[in-house]
Amino acid sequence: MLINIFLGLSVMFICLMFQSVLLVVSLSFYVSHHAWVESPRLGSRLLLLMSVMTLLLIGNLVQIGVWAWLFYGLDEFTDFATAYYFSCVNFATLGYGDIVMSERWRLLGPIESLNGIVMVGVSTSALLWTLQDTLRIMNQKNKPAESRGKS
């Protein structure tokens, strides 16, 4: 059981580091392209938001892959595709139960689910921040000039 916890926490730490880097990259991209938000073109705003979403989604998919490599490396699955599917189900906390790990390593599944809850939450909060900032700027641009200074 202790080896499960050690392995699980180690992979969670790797995923946390990776997601932190991708979070900084995503939000830096948003800030450096802030002119797109201020553009009168809706397409520019949508492209910026979709770019941030895509970067964060890629981060989650890579983390799923890291867990899948662990499961595959532990010989829990005969092919990587099955390990990746199993990892997706755990990371998303779906818990289908159609594929189960051996008793020796089964504690890693719930640990990955905890990792998924945290990482999806981090991605969601970053997306919400970018959306709120975009809507705030759009709202300010739509206010009459005399009311902008009064808020």
UniProtKB/TrEMBL annotation:
Transmembrane residue ranges: 6-25, 46-70, 82-101, 113-131
InterPro entries tied to this protein: K_chnl_dom
Keyword terms of this UniProt record: Membrane, Transmembrane, Transmembrane helix
Calcium among keywords: no
Domain Potassium channel positions: 64-127
Keyword Membrane among UniProt keywords: yes
Protein's UniProt name: Potassium channel domain-containing protein
Species this protein is from: Photobacterium halotolerans
Lineage: Bacteria, Pseudomonadati, Pseudomonadota, Gammaproteobacteria, Vibrionales
